[in-house]
């Protein structure tokens, strides 16, 4: 009986010498938490590098665009009939765009005040302000002789050139029908003569530098609408006054 008691005491004593269980989280979780924190810092660092690269790329893209004249397609359908191309460069400065907007408002007010909505139209694109006038409002049929009642329109065109620092391109357009007079052998001569006649009047009226003006004849190569009726042909017979700010002198 004594032996059994001794064995029991020995077993109990042996069990009491084992170390107590550890408190808190297991050690592996501390290592895991450190690893997750380092990964988070690593990806934040990668993200910062990525944003910096985008900013640098945008700056480089802007410099390349200005240097090489990268173009985009203008989405406004009405613009395509007025410009040299449906593609326009986007290098016009904010200050130049502000001047163009102010000029468009001035011309619209002039049109409204004179009730000339049926004779004049104004539109602004990426490079300038375009004023379009039917040739019947300026010239006698088949000639480059200016009608006296058209001087009000030309005087307004001239005042803009005198009071603002824009350059001006005067564009003459005809329809697709051959000219029927003995003075001009083709629509090329007629359209160019009409543009030159307007330019000559503006120079005489303002006395500005001829370097700020151009006259171009397009004949019937740039119609606004198909030459399928007399009404459409009347629309295509026009003179355009295209004002460009000096910032676009590279395209001038």
Account of the protein in words:
With 252 residues, this protein is an alpha+beta fold. The protein has a domain at 91-248: 2-Layer Sandwich (60s Ribosomal Protein L30, Chain: A), CATH 3.30.1330.60. Helix content is 48%, strand content 14%. The strands form 2 sheets. The chain has a 5-stranded mixed beta sheet with strand order 3-4-7-5-6. It has a two-stranded antiparallel ribbon with strand order 1-2.
Number of strand segments? 7
Largest beta sheet: strand ordering: 3-4-7-5-6
Oligomer: single chain
Radius of gyration, taken over Cα atoms and rounded to an integer in Å: 39 Å
Q: Which class of the domain at 91-248 in CATH terms?
A: Alpha Beta
Can you give the mean pLDDT?
A: 79
What's the helical proportion of residues? Answer: 40-55%
Classified in CATH, the superfamily of the domain at 91-248 is: OmpA-like domain
Task: Describe the largest sheet.
Answer: 5 strands, mixed
Which structural class do you get from the secondary structure elements?
A: alpha+beta
Low-confidence stretches: 74-90
What distance separates the N and C termini?
122 Å
| Second CATH tier, the architecture of the domain at 91-248 | 2-Layer Sandwich
């Amino acid at each position: 009986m004594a032996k059994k008691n001794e064995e029991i005491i020995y077993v109990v004593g042996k069990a009491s010498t084992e170390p107590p269980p550890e408190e808190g989280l297991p050690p592996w979780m501390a290592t895991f938490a450190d690893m997750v924190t380092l990964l988070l810092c690593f990806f934040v660092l990668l993200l910062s590098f990525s944003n910096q690269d985008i900013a640098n790329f945008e700056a480089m893209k802007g410099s390349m665009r200005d240097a090489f004249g990268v173009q985009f397609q203008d989405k406004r359908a009405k613009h395509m009939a007025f410009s040299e191309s449906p593609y326009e460069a986007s290098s016009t400065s904010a200050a130049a765009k502000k001047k163009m907007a102010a000029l468009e408002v001035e011309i619209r007010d002039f049109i409204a005040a004179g009730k000339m909505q049926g004779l004049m139209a104004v539109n602004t694109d990426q490079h300038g302000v375009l004023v379009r006038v039917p040739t019947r409002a300026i010239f006698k049929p088949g000639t480059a002789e200016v009608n006296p009642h058209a001087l009000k329109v030309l005087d307004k065109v001239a005042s803009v050139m005198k009071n603002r620092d824009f350059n001006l391109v005067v564009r003459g357009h005809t329809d697709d029908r051959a000219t029927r007079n003995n003075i001009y052998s083709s629509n090329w001569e007629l359209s160019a003569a009409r543009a030159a006649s307007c330019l000559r009047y503006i120079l005489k009226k303002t006395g500005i530098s001829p370097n700020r003006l151009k006259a171009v004849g397009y004949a019937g190569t740039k119609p606004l609408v198909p030459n399928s009726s007399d009404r459409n042909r009347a629309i295509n017979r026009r003179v355009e006054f295209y004002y460009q700010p000096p910032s676009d002198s590279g395209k001038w």
